[in-house]
Specification:
The protein is built from eleven helices and no strands. The chain is mainly alpha-helical.
Length: 265
Amino acid sequence: MLVHSRAGRRAAWAVFAVLFLPLFALPLLVVVAASFATHWSGAFPSGPTTGHYAAAVRGESLQALTTSLATALAASLLALTVGTWAALAAAGLGRRGKRSLDALFMLPVAVPSVVVGLAVLVAFSTPPLLLNGTSSIVILAHTILVTAFAYQSVSAAILRLDPAYEQAAASLGAGPAYVLFQVRLPLLLPSLTAAAGLCFALSMGELSATVMLYPPDWTPLPVRIFAATDRGSLFSGSAVAVVLMTTTLLVLLAVSRIRTKAAYR
């Protein structure tokens, strides 16, 4: 911590608690409390129950969770592949070319995600690429929305790479492919895993574009949460939201362990 005095550290922690609890921790705690309640007419919930979780981990909710995991996994892998390739290509461009590529990849996150969903819906609702009504259109929209984060993360990591490693490998006779796969990408592995985790988390929580595109047999969990709360089932929706949050955190913890091992190597 940059504050060295004991009084200064206490003040910093107090400011942190004042800002963190109301803005971040309290809303999550409210959702968790609501997931165990059947009524909430006063300051605190009442009627404690675990029945909401019993319904949240079976039937349609379990299928929606599986759909979200499959969508997020596919979208994050595609986004990581495209974003990494684009970042590596941009590193060899001039300033003007790199700026143009940066603007291209940042465009989907510069507009509302519902606009991206509408664009994908219009573009792929007619032949020859007819994806409307399939799971592929949902995965495609998620990939478009999260690729920018993979691209930016890998681009920033490339700027920090020491070119001496690549130059040493090339001077020893290594070809471009060997330098890329045996030197450059291993050095980028911590950033790649971090980008994959970020893309996965963003895809797991994506709703606006998904609502416009999802078919009845491919309903991600955020859509089910929205539908439950829209019907007034706030407590069961809260339980499903906690399941979504817990699943995402567990995956991110697993990714962080991979990132830590990669950084150590």
